[in-house]
Design a protein that fits this description.
This protein is α/β, with parallel strands linked by helices. Helices cover 49% and strands 15% of the residues. It has 9 helices and 8 strands. It has a 5-stranded parallel beta sheet, with helices on both faces. A 3-stranded antiparallel beta sheet has the order 6-5-7. β5 and β6 form a beta hairpin. The longest helix has 17 residues. The structure holds BIS(adenosine)-5'-pentaphosphate. The site of BIS(adenosine)-5'-pentaphosphate (AP5) has 34 residues, from α1, α2, α3, α6 and β6.
């Protein structure tokens, strides 16, 4: 099964994609994570993207389309994938349709996570990640069990994303409303759009997404 998780910054796409990956073995394809890995490796693509990402603006469509087309052809994607952060423009959505056709793959559903705007800012500004193993936390909603120590690897070093601040969040939300939200009618018309309440707890959001996946298997 191949799905898209769609929602504004901080909606919980990454959190839910990782849960689905663990439980069902589907592969999470996060374009944000791919770009951040490219920046870390000092690649030209990452360097080109970094300034835009730090400002909260979108990276050019052509770069993103090429990145995803390379990735979906890899062997692990045969198990099914979860697109997290792609597509983000109508041009990317159209390019995705064309590439899925070229590679004889289907899109089964587009799951929209609906979250109030005030909650998004709180979610993003409270987020931090273990610098060693990458485990994700939130100061209020998912704190470490022992303060200052990663539950997963025991490291005491954490990092925050440079774009996770209230000022950049304004630009990211503007990009979502102006460039990404127009994708919703695009998928609604194709009968693929399913909306879930992203304001619920992480466990309840996961259950709602699983209910969507179950209904698809039955149909
Ligand atoms: P990207 O990394 O994709 O960021 P984003 O879309 O802004 O999404 P986030 O990662 O901030 O949020 P999320 O929805 O994954 O939420 P999360 O699960 O972490 O993109 C970054 C940048 O890269 C873009 O701005 C752009 O420049 C560029 N880019 C990437 N893809 C691109 C593309 N296709 N085209 C062009 N440019 C592109 O959750 C957030 C926090 O909330 C966490 O701390 C979590 O613990 C907490 N949380 C999650 N769920 C819940 C819940 N139910 N209740 C309470 N807390 C919760």
């Amino acid at each position: 099964m191949n799905i898209i998780l769609l929602g504004p910054p901080g909606a919980g796409k990454g959190t839910q994609a990782r849960l689905l990956e663990e439980k069902y073995g589907m592969v999470q394809l996060s374009t944000g994570d791919m770009l951040r890995a490219s920046i870390k490796r000092g690649e030209p693509l990452g360097l080109e993207a970094k300034k835009l990402m730090d400002e909260g603006r979108l990276v050019p469509d052509d770069l993103m389309i090429r990145m995803i087309e390379d990735r979906i052809q890899q062997a692990d994607c045969q198990k099914g994938f979860i697109l997290d952060g792609f597509p983000r423009t109508v041009k990317q959505a159209e390019a995705l349709d064309a590439m899925l056709d070229r590679h004889h793959k289907n899109l089964d559903a587009v799951v929209e996570l609906k979250v109030d705007e005030d909650a998004l800012v709180e979610r993003v500004t409270g987020r931090f990640t273990c610098a060693k193993c990458g485990a994700g936390y939130h100061s209020n909603f998912k704190p470490t069990k022992v303060e200052g120590i990663c539950d997963n690897c025991g490291s005491a070093e954490f990092v925050c994303r440079p774009d996770d601040n209230p000022e950049t969040m304004k630009t990211r939300l503007k990009a979502f409303h102006e460039q990404t939200a127009p994708i919703l009618p695009y998928y609604r018309e194709k009968g693929l759009l399913k909306s879930v309440d992203g304001m619920a707890s992480m466990v309840n959001v996961q259950q709602s997404i699983e209910a969507v996946l179950k209904s698809l298997r039955k149909g």
